[in-house]
Amino acid sequence: MTAMIAPDAYKTGEQGREEVREFSVDMLTDFFANRNYRPYADGNRFRLSFAFTPSIDCSLNYSFVFSDEKYRWLSIQSSSDKRFKIEQRDELFNILNRFNIKSRWPITFVKQGETRLLVHTKFDVDFSRGVQPELVYESITRFMGGTHSLWEFLLEQGL
Question: Which domains does the chain have, with CATH numbers?
Answer without folding.
Answer: 25-156 (3.30.1460.70)
